[in-house]
Amino acid sequence: MSARILLYSKPGCHLCADARVIIERVCADTGTSFDEVDITTSAELMAEYGEQIPVTFVDGAQHDFWRVDEQRLRNAIG
User: Fold this and answer.
1) Distance separating alpha carbons of residues 59 and 43, to the nearest angstrom
2) How far is residue 30's CA from residue 13's CA, in Å, rounded to a whole number?
3) Residue 53 in contact with residue 7, Cβ under 8 Å?
4) pLDDT, tens digit, for every residue of 22-76?
5) What phi and psi, each to the nearest 5 degrees, are found at residue 9?
6) Cα first-last separation, the chain
7) Rg for the chain (alpha carbons), in Å?
8) 78 near 58, Cβ under 8 Å?
9) Which one of 16, 22, 26, 77 has the fewest beta carbons within 10 angstroms of its own beta carbon?
10) Which parts of 1-78 fold into alpha helices (H)?
11) Which domains does the chain have, with CATH numbers?
């Protein structure tokens, strides 16, 4: 089974680090999994998301970018 939450990030991004902390906490509390993808490994991902990171997806749909609202994320994964 694939993770319900996907985080697009890149190294050295402080907003990405903040988002990761929130996502890890929500996942630990809810038993939900997440995957993280470093967009610097793909020219296509850099072109699409380079100015928006961190970008989060829930169940395949874009959920947030730049910041993760913890309560909104909790509501999305129900």
Assistant:
1) 24
2) 26
3) no
4) 999 999 999 999 999 999 999 999 999 999 999 999 999 999 999 999 999 999 9
5) -145, 180
6) 18
7) 12
8) no
9) 77
10) 14-30, 43-49, 70-77
11) 5-77 (3.40.30.10)
User: Which amino acid is present at 71?
Assistant: Q
* Whole-structure pTM value: 0.92
Token pair 């850099």 is found at 46
Q: Which residues have a Cβ under 8 Å from the Cβ of 40 and sit 6 or more positions away?
A: 10, 11, 46
Give the Cα separation of 27 and 59 in Å (integer): 14
Query: Which residue, chain included where needed, has tokens 């996942």?
Result: 27
* Spatial separation of the C-alpha atoms in residues 78 and 5, rounded to whole Å: 12
